[in-house]
Amino acid sequence: MNPLQKLALESVDVRACSVPLRRPLVAKVGHFTEWPFILIDVKTREGVIGRSYLEPYLRNAIRYVGPAIQDMAEAFKGRQLAPLDMYRDVIGTLHLLGRQGVSVIAAAGLDMAIWDALAKAAGLPLAEMLGGTVGKVRTYNTNGLWLLPLEKLAKEARELVDEGNFSAIKIRLGRPKLADDLKALELVRGAIGNDIQLMCDFNQGQTLQEAIWRCHALDDQGLYWFEEPVVFDNYAQSAQLARELKTPVQIGENIYGPRSFLEAVRAEAADLYMPDLMRIGGVTGWMRAAAIAGAAGHPMSSHLYPEVSAHLLRATESADWLEYRDWGNPIVAQPFQVENGQCIVPDRPGNGIDWNEDAVAKYAY
After folding, report:
1. Domain residue limits, the chain
2. What is the rounded distance in angstroms from the CA atom of residue 154 to the CA atom of residue 195?
């Protein structure tokens, strides 16, 4: 492909599938035994196909997210693929609907697929298309340690470390009794030792009063961060915790778009940030948020979407950790590999996502 060739949007295919989980998710936000995906293929007149997916949590989300993606794509049919122009125009149309929720999610899915198509046309990995390089990204394993019975935690913690010789894993906290959270940490530490970094996630499950009491009680446990102790959009409460606690506070996966990201940074709502590509606005939204985080000196990690996120962290000034989950591996033709706790960003054009069509057909709905 001529790297100078311009691409024009022809059509978009949107499909849904739901993949069974090796380890069910048991958290404050719900109990999941399978994980839904919305698959997006942006087709161009020149024959290049850009691919992306969304992780909408809810199986029925395809009913309203799918039509929104199609409507947005129809408005740009025949136009040159230019993600910055499309992002500006799409966001401009959302003044009346609002810049959160389904509208931003649909725009993010399109944006990621468009960037993939452009990188493929240029013959470059997405990281290089964005001005970075391919290589390794330090990675933590988020594939387990949910709110499980205490007796299951030690074995699962060892498994998580061994799956890719990880140097960091994440546990979920917020059990009814503080003593059980403390016991959970004791069991996991006993299983993995003190050299493995341990992050924890409360999944927004605490009131401010509960978070103040519990996080102070856990503040000497050597945790890498406290993730979303309180509801994500109460920046004042989150900022209070960030000021009071020694353990860094992490938020960001529920922030919609770089403008809201800037509001959180201005409010000093957290020490660390971890945008979610579906909500932050895809590749374009991420890069704009990354510029804010870099300028403010805030370390930036990812939330889900390990393939695209790995490329983006290679082009992010204050890159911290990639969150690794294998929930989508069955439907991806060549899942990214993790070696010695490092995700390997492959040296192939685009974001590296192609579909395992047999698996997609098997899990389609």
Report:
1. 9-124, 128-355
2. 16
pLDDT surpasses 70 at 224: yes
pLDDT tens per residue across span 19-75: 999 999 998 888 999 999 999 999 999 999 999 999 999 999 999 999 999 999 999
* Buried b / exposed e along 340-364 (16+ C-beta atoms within 10 A): ebbbebbebbbbbbebbeebbeebe
Single pTM value for the model = 0.95
Check if CATH label 3.40.50.970 holds for domain 128-355: no
In 45-151, beta strands by DSSP E: 49-54, 136-141
Strand partners, 34: 20
| Cβ partners under 8 Å of residue 1, min gap 6 | 46, 48, 120, 121, 122, 123
Task: For 132-159, write each residue's pLDDT tens digit.
Answer: 999 999 999 999 999 999 999 999 999 9
Express each pLDDT in 165-210 by its tens digit. 999 999 999 999 999 999 999 999 999 999 999 999 999 999 999 9
**Tokens representing residue 343 in the block:** 């995700």
Amino acid at 162: D
Q: 195 CB contacts (<8 Å, ≥6 apart)?
A: 167
- Residues contacting 287, CB < 8 A, separation 6+: 130, 312, 315, 316
Q: What is the DSSP letter of 319?
A: B
CATH classification for the domain delimited by 9-124, as one of 3.30.390.10, 3.40.50.170, 3.10.20.30, 3.30.1490.110: 3.30.390.10
